Amino acid sequence: MSGKLMRAVQYDSYGGGADGLKFKGQRKYQLMKALVDIAGIKLDGSGPRMNILVTAASGGVGHYAVQLAKLDNTHVTGTCGARNIEFVKSLGADEVLDYKTPLGATLKSPSGKKYDVVVHCARGIPWSTFETNLSDTGKVIDLTPRPISMCTYVWKKLTFSKTQLLPLILIPKEDKELKLLVKLVKGS
Ligand SMILES: NC(=O)c1ccc[n+]([C@@H]2O[C@H](COP(=O)([O-])OP(=O)(O)OC[C@H]3O[C@@H](n4cnc5c(N)ncnc54)[C@H](OP(=O)(O)O)[C@@H]3O)[C@@H](O)[C@H]2O)c1
């Protein structure tokens, strides 16, 4: 494998090396697809103005979601612990909530925005907390779904609700070219 390609592969934000490329890279690609296909984010910045909340924005999934969301014409609110507020701001978030404070626990945007999309990467937040903060057609993409999330998903569908809860499981898929690339990285 050429040194140039090797450097390109190693220089990734997906964990580096063959396994990082294979698993984390695939998951991140799927998250990007979900943000484009489900949330309607335009990666070239051509989308309409949208308000987005990312919970656990300092985490491995959340920090990536914030950066992807900011590629479009978005206002992004992130939640994280106090020690990571500056980090989440540095990713481009317009406002940050400390989830351990009373305001943070409500998920209310400090500037009063209603969220068009929530990328939910934290755990244990009930639908009712999201619902009061959503725009009329707001969607919650739930990366930490629990059995109750599935019930809410079905209930929303059956009642033709405009707001939605969409459980999302990122399952890495094998891809012929990626498999070959991983083999080359491992062999080099
Ligand atoms: N659906 C899928 O396919 C899929 C794929 C990958 C991961 N996940 C799930 O997604 C979740 C996040 O994964 P991750 O890899 O990003 O985890 P991670 O890197 O461990 O980050 C989690 C972060 O969440 C923050 N946090 C904890 N409770 C919070 C709350 N109530 N509100 C806001 N932030 C909170 C903490 O931030 P501070 O340190 O700032 O306090 C922590 O750093 C996990 O539950 C994981 O199982 C799902």
From TrEMBL:
Residues 60-123 form the Alcohol dehydrogenase-like C-terminal domain. Signal peptide: none annotated. It holds the Pfam family ADH_zinc_N. Transmembrane segments: none annotated. This is Alcohol dehydrogenase-like C-terminal domain-containing protein. It comes from Solanum commersonii (Commerson's wild potato).
